[in-house]
Each structure stands twice: as structure tokens, then as C-alpha cells.
Amino acid sequence: MTAADILPPEPLAQTLADAGVLPEGCAWTPLAGGRTNRLWLVSPPSGAAAVVKLYTRAAPNPLFPNDPAVELRLLRHLSGHGIAPHPLYFGETPAGICLVYAHLPGAPWVRGAYLAAATLKRLHAIAPPPGLRNAPDGSLALSEQTEAILARCKSHAARAAEALRPRQEVPALGRAALLHGDPVPANIVVDETGARLIDWQCPAIGDPCEDIALFLSPAMQLSYRGAALDAPERAAFLASYRDPEMIARYRRLAPWYHWRMLAYCLWRHESGDPDARAAADLEQAALTALSRA
């Protein structure tokens, strides 16, 4: 990590100080959770700490959008629900678009699948705000999204993945639940009081199975926790979500979600992420295991 990665851009701290958001003399500590944007834990000489998020203008991501305005809207919408941080500032700065929110004490999720399941179930019961994107609903929409991701790939592995398309069709649910859109371990903050969710730049409405699949994804668990969930952890999560009909639907859709994540990891690998190939292998193994079950 270079000094440019550790320290905030020079005008950013001054802009926030001039706006009365953060005092001068704060300690800025980079946070490692974000893959797309830059984040710092900012500790003032006195008072509560905050998180500063500086959005980057990265190339469009086929699975995880990066929308600053939507993140602000969600944080405001969820204020008072105890499931997301409170926003303190949002605006254009000389360094780029910036969001400041109250720091949530705790650590990224590592274990306790029941807690992650209960947090997502609670989120899915909250009425969504208007204007969110629609997540793919049902096998047809998932197939179209996966094919679009594979079309962006040029590798032989991507061409081979096209032949792994699942066969069991699953109809759309037609439900507009509020979805986090990226509930990976790094985005679930746990302390002694429970769990809350951060990084709301790609929320959606749609089938709760979308969030369930993203949390259970072997690739996402490997990328953010260092290892896929084992069978008891997966079983504990599914049981703790406490919705047998939704879990039965997820099981029918699981091959489609693994196929999509396989495509996404192959795209990430071709885009320069060397670790994405191991993640793709895990998704392909999960997909193959389900096809043999």
C-alpha cells in the first residue's frame, strides 16, 4: 500500500473541515473492506469517529453497480431501523463524490451464520423506497444476466462455462423486497448488540433469494472471509432465515446463482483480478455438485 492509498487526497480533509463535517487534526486510517471505492476511518481529537467514503469512477460492473446517490438515499431511508449507519455528509469535493457516515463499532462478519440470516430477513421485511433497480427475478432473468456477463469474456474458460447453463426453469417471484445487493462478510458489521449492513451503493428490489445467494456464494466468502462456508454453516444460515418457502425457492435457483457467479468471477479474472480464478473454481464445483445431486 502506497502513501497515496493511506492518506486522503489533500483537498478532501480540508473540504470536510471547511464544511464543518470533520474538525481539523483528525487521524485518517484506511479501511480495507472496499474493492471499488476508497474508505477511511476518521477519528477526531474528541467525539465520535466517522467513515469517509470517496467514490471512484471505475468501469461499470456487470453485477454490482456503484451509485453514490442511491447509497445516500438508502441510508436516509433506513435511518431509525438500526440496520445501517447514519449519513452525516454527502457532496461533490475536489477529490470526487464523498459520503461521510457515522462509524459503526464492531468487526466484519466471520462466523455466526444465524446472525447474518436474521439480519437479511429483517432487511427484507422493510418497505423499499421508490426508484431502485430491479434485481433479476427467476431463472430466465438470471440466464440473460449471466449470458451478458459471459459475452464480455474472451477466455476458453468462459466459452466452456456457457455449456454449464442449468436446465430447471424457475418462474419469477414478482415480489419487490428491499435487497442490499452486496451482503458479503465485509459489509456485515457485528458487535455485541447484533449486526448491521454497510456499503449500500448497489441496493435493489426483488427476490430475497438474490441476497441469500450472494451471502452463501463460495466465491464471495473466499474473497472476503478467506474460505467458503462449510455444510453446517450453510445449513445454519438457511434454517435461521426462518422462511421455508423462500429457502425451498433458493434451493431451486441455486444452480443459476452459481452459474452467474462463475461467469462474474471469470470476468473479474479477465479484468485483472488474479484471485478470481480460484473463486470461479469454487462456484463451478458447487454448480457441478448440484447437477449430480
Automatic annotation (TrEMBL):
Q: Which SUPFAM superfamilies match?
A: Protein kinase-like (PK-like)
What InterPro entries does the record point to?
Aminoglycoside_PTrfase, Kinase-like_dom_sf
Pfam families in the cross-refs: APH
Record's superkingdom? Bacteria
Q: Where is the Aminoglycoside phosphotransferase domain?
A: 28-255
Q: Which UniProt keywords apply?
A: Transferase
A GO molecular function term, named singly, is: transferase activity
Q: What is the protein's given name?
A: Phosphotransferase enzyme family protein
What species does this protein belong to?
A: Roseovarius halotolerans
